[in-house]
């Protein structure tokens, strides 16, 4: 097993690294935990989990051919910020602050932790840069942290391969160009995203799941339908606009990957135009049908090949960035981790809810809906520089009505 993570970036990893030069590609998840532990115990747990996942001790450097690569640093310490707060404290405000503080990918690490200590309970906030992580990565990191802080020893995972390598594709070619110039990293513009959250009861979540099944769609399809209808209603300039909605697709299952911390997603758009006369469930089925085939190896291969053509076999970083400026022009993103895939009772600590992913996407006007169910309760978040006022509440009302939920 390799104990260091030194390799060139895969195509989509490189794409996110390039996009991060244009606009923040940082994201966060938050977890509500019943119970408390001393801060020293959390610090030890973070250090233990860092040893398990090699990407938690890495920075992104450039080689002599202007290829970004993952460089392992043994002495790297994951930043930890702690606050003592009251029960009613709004954790979303701390996520907003964290998303406004950009990672320096040249220095690393590309992760940090915030712990909010309430009188009897805890909120954990994990923040990462998308180059080396995805939403599922942080979902599993919550499990690893809770196991570590409650005394469970963990095995070190093998170094994370890029999806390119998993598919048998070669690494980025070294271009020996006499005109190679050192890329000058620009100071990133400040960002000020807003975050809100909503949790459905277990009973309501069960009704949404069952009604979606009966209607031959998915909960993801229902969430997509709700956000499209709510957006058109509350943002009048979107009333008749063609809406591009993208969904990140996890590649872990189709590529048979483990729980390692890494970027293991593709994305796929569904377009909504002249659909205003369709019923809610017709829209939900449309959203499901639009993602058909994205859970196949062929989709992942085609997706990676597309970004390899855009970002590989060149030493001109600025040219690649200029090309990517035209990418990701969606109005809405629904990033759905579906459900927590592990037990939530850790003895002295119990995982109550996870929220997110909370991430900025697109060009600033977009609405990012995060979704995940914990303990059979669906949690939604909205993250945007320009959030549509009241959109989560409107989505809730739409889902209640569609699923015949009594308010």
Automatic annotation (TrEMBL):
It is an enzyme of class 2 (transferase). It catalyses: 2 a mycocerosyl-[mycocerosic acid synthase] + a phthiocerol = a dimycocerosyl phthiocerol + 2 holo-[mycocerosic acid synthase]; 2 a mycocerosyl-[mycocerosic acid synthase] + a phthiodiolone = a dimycocerosyl phthiodiolone + 2 holo-[mycocerosic acid synthase]; 2 a mycocerosyl-[mycocerosic acid synthase] + a phenolphthiocerol = a dimycocerosyl phenolphthiocerol + 2 holo-[mycocerosic acid synthase]. InterPro entries: Alcohol_O-acetyltransferase, Atf2/Sli1-like, CAT-like_dom_sf, PapA_C. SUPFAM superfamilies: CoA-dependent acyltransferases (SSF52777). Signal peptide: none annotated. Residues 191-255 form the Phthiocerol/phthiodiolone dimycocerosyl transferase C-terminal domain. Keywords: Acyltransferase, Transferase. It holds the Pfam family AATase. Its EC number is 2.3.1.282. Belongs to the acyltransferase PapA5 family. This is Phthiocerol/phthiodiolone dimycocerosyl transferase. It comes from Flavobacterium gyeonganense.
